[in-house]
Amino acid sequence: MRNLLDFDFDSAHIWHPYTSMTRSLPVYGVHSAKGCELELVDGRKLIDGTSSWWACVHGYAHPEILTAMEKQLHQLSHVMFGGITHEPAIELCKKLIAMTCEPLTKVFLCDSGSIAVEVAIKMALQYWQGQNAHEGLRPLKQRILTVKKGYHGDTFAAMSVCDPEGGMHTMFGDAVTKQSFVPAPQTAFGETLQADDLTAMRSILSAHNNDIAAVIIEPIMQGAGGMRFYSADYLIGLRALCDEFNVLLILDEIATGFGRTGKLFAYEHANITPDILCLGKALTGGYISLAATLCTDNVAQGISQSPAGVFMHGPTFMGNPLACAAACASLDLINRNQWQAQVAAIEQQMRLELKDAIDLPSVKDVRVLGAVGVLEMYEPVNTAELQQQFVDLGVWVRPFANLIYIMPPYVISSAQLSQLTGAMKLIAAGISASSTHSAPQLISHG
């Protein structure tokens, strides 16, 4: 029998995401993973319904990704990117430019999704510095506009554009840059835009476009802010407003990119193009941290005209060869287009198997889009209690706030998916709609 983990040491010394060191939440020791299953140290196997926070779309221990990483590990695991380049980075950037919309021609490789957002915001600010310097004007456009209910990461610039009421602002106060917010999109996905859904956005852009450098938004799906799916018409209108009022559009596709919503990128639902695009999570198939921020020639030129003359960012592990090799292998799998049939099948099965959950007294709404399935509860759930119940049912589903959701790997089998949806409904059925649960959690990564 394998040795069990030292859970006492873990509890006393190791911080886990969004947890207290004095009131620690239970954790589950994972020994290994393969396909869509996590094997715990006690031998139990759990079907993974989260793709390890939405990243491991090809499943675990995929031979092609492992082979690419092992080969690269022996050849060149890391080298600084300042003054040096290498084949994995070049190959990855070629793939990204080929996969994304035509105007995006420049790629900045980042460490993580949060940093991709930091980079995007920096790009927008430096672009306007360059534009103003070129036109002999003083810098004015230094504010970012976004919608409520959004989540863009945990670093400070990213926090500044997260939801201002349930997000990070509430505890970091004046340390977080004050940005501008309008109500979240209200028109549901697949519906024609309500007449007033963009009214607030138009109003603030009209009144303050001299101050606003960019609008940032998660296209089609607001993730950790509530798993909300909104109309593609909203994006079409937003792109038009940004053009009308001379403001850049940043799309955060860290959660939605690479097929999750049923399109390769969520902006394809609206047939629009951004000025700046953030990618991450599934970029490497979830095997190692890497993200990317892409921009247009126009944005790159503006940055180059800024007083600094260069883009002011350069992470130590930028363009890490090992991560780039993993990403190249992951994108090769994506480019075979098997994900299209896989995601369509997942969507169809989840719609069929989750639809009757709306009849449960505790369930307020049922939503499915692509490989995302959501049960929205009337009340916030107790994550620790429900986590244990899901583990007892042989699945890994991690609820948060008032949501029980799954975003499984694309390679999941029909039987495995049925076990996940069945567990979701069983747990939801055991929750009384009138029960008082734990206090609402802060918007987090999930």
UniProtKB/TrEMBL annotation:
The enzyme's E.C. designation? 2.6.1.62
Q: Which residues bind substrate?
A: 53, 151, 281, 314, 398
Q: Does the keyword S-adenosyl-L-methionine apply?
A: yes
Q: Which PROSITE patterns match?
A: AA_TRANSFER_CLASS_3 (PS00600)
Instruction: Look up keyword Transferase and say if it applies.
Output: yes
Q: Which UniProt keywords apply?
A: Aminotransferase, Biotin biosynthesis, Cytoplasm, Pyridoxal phosphate, S-adenosyl-L-methionine, Transferase
Q: Which InterPro entries match?
A: Aminotrans_3 (IPR005814), Aminotrans_3_PPA_site (IPR049704), BioA (IPR005815), PyrdxlP-dep_Trfase (IPR015424), PyrdxlP-dep_Trfase_major (IPR015421), PyrdxlP-dep_Trfase_small (IPR015422)
User: Which residue ranges does UniProt annotate as crossing the membrane?
Assistant: none
Pathway where this protein functions? Cofactor biosynthesis; biotin biosynthesis; 7,8-diaminononanoate from 8-amino-7-oxononanoate (SAM route): step 1/1
Localization annotation? Cytoplasm
Q: Which PANTHER family has this protein been placed in?
A: ADENOSYLMETHIONINE-8-AMINO-7-OXONONANOATE AMINOTRANSFERASE (PTHR42684:SF17)
Which family is annotated? Belongs to the class-III pyridoxal-phosphate-dependent aminotransferase family. BioA subfamily.
How is the subunit organization of this protein annotated in UniProt?
Homodimer.
| Chain's role | Catalyzes the transfer of the alpha-amino group from S-adenosyl-L-methionine (SAM) to 7-keto-8-aminopelargonic acid (KAPA) to form 7,8-diaminopelargonic acid (DAPA). It is the only aminotransferase known to utilize SAM as an amino donor.
UniProt protein name: Adenosylmethionine-8-amino-7-oxononanoate aminotransferase
